[in-house]
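Why do we bother with a discrete structure alphabet at all? Because it lets us treat a fold like text: something you can write down, compare, and reason about line by line. To make this less abstract, here is a complete entry for ABC transporter substrate-binding protein. Read it the way you would read a sentence in a foreign language you are learning: slowly, and without expecting to understand everything at once.
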Amino acid sequence: MRMSKRLAILFAAICAALPAHAAEPRIGLAAPLSGASALLGAQMEAGATAAAKADGKAALVVKDTGCSAVGGAVAANALIAEGVDLVTGFVCIEAIEAALPVLSGAGIPVIVTGVRVDALTDRRDKTGWPVFRLAPRADAEAQAVARILTRAWRSELFAIIDDGTIYGRELAESLRVAAELAGLDPVFIDTFRPQLPNQIALAGRLRKAGATHVFAGGDRADIALLGQAAAELGYPLQIAGGEALRAARDEADLVAGTLMIGPPDWADIADPGIVAALRRTGVEPDGYVLPAYAAVEIALAARRTAGDAPAADVLAATRFETALGAVRFNDIGDWAGTRYRLFRYDGQTFEQVDLE
């Protein structure tokens, strides 16, 4: 009996001497599980849960942000109380801006899968927030439009138009500036009226200007109407747009051959084994499912590699293998490189175009 007591004391001493991080990781997910963005939050929860289950040892703690500042702060404090090591998720800037000071104060890094606002990482040196981002930056699309089309349309008679919205204007202006710097001169630049019953007048103006190609900063419905109007006029016009073209089909569908500059469908580039495993459990790899899965993979790898060192240091210096391929964060915490590509619509789906 005395020996058993000695062994118990010895075991307790050994446990006390183990590093504080010897326990299995606890990963937090902060997502909008209520309100208008609940569908996106459900996608994040499905992906994060699947990754934690695939790991087999990690614990996942999920909290609702409600996509609000109050919800973000409440979720952050609740995750700290639950003893999480890292946090993933977030869709809304209001929620993460309220949560980051709280999580940063507790030394907990955050891997963001949904917030695109540039300032989130641009201000990292000033704020000191340990934030890393898998979501694209807000300016990444405009930069990709400019880079890809100035290369692809160098010898074409192209026009640049936009629908007057902030989104459309920013894309069009980025291309215009890049074209000017590249010594390219658009044959036509204009702002068109969106949400008209048809865009036949716009197609006529483009034809009169001699444009064979046009970039349209606008939504899918207007670009579809422009394509149909050009077809009605017998006008062979190559139309390109931004990732808004991935929106659900309207009554007027895009004409086959329409180009899109956007990121790939994550399911098309993800590990096929993981995609198949998700589908076997009834989870379609839509929206934020796969980014959330990859974020948990990164969080677990960083936590286990770090040991007693700060996990943020590991996140900043490590190349991670994930369901979405290799991920490395740059010096401000964004996913290094670009995911934007050129795609062509075949009448049903977008297929990637390889530029020569």
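What the structure line is telling us, in plain words: Confidence is low (pLDDT under 50) at residues 1-21. Residues 2 and 287 are 60 Å apart (CA to CA).
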